[in-house]
Fold this protein.
Amino acid sequence: MATRNKGARGLGTVAAGLMLATATLNLASRQRRLEEARLQVRRLELEELSARRRALAHQQRMHWELLSKAIDDPALAEVIDTYDRDIPAAKRRQYFYANAWYANLYHLYRAGILDQEELYGHLRELFQSPVLREYWEASKGTRASLKGASEEAKIGRMVDGLLKDLDEADTDEWWVVGNPPGP
């Protein structure tokens, strides 16, 4: 009987070992499937980001093409011209061009090529131009129509604050004026 018990115990140990090995294999298999699922989700996220960036780049090209036509042809400019009619046509064309520069920076930000701090630095330089500042003032009605919580409205408020800081600065070193947003 002692031999039988010893053999039964031996079989029990083997069975327990097989069960443990099977459980370990099942766990490893589950972990591998979970990691594959995570990788698939990450691939889909990256594909979505890539598609979004392509769409933003396409939109930016379209914006530039449309603005170029308006800059080149006063008859076409009338379609999008919301500026005061007392502003001379040549100045309005400059505003369209100023809009193209601003929109270019905004789209670089939206595409993730510039972060907010880099955008701020570029805007600080761009708004050294008196024409850009005039454009900004002339286009405030357009910005007022944006949803307050939109990214574009937030960036517009950032520019408003930057211009206020530049106007109030007591230094000629414009590149240090203002408080760029943190990362």
In short: The two ends are 76 Å apart (CA to CA). Residues 2-72 form the longest helix (71 residues). The chain has seven helices and no strands. The mean pLDDT is 86.
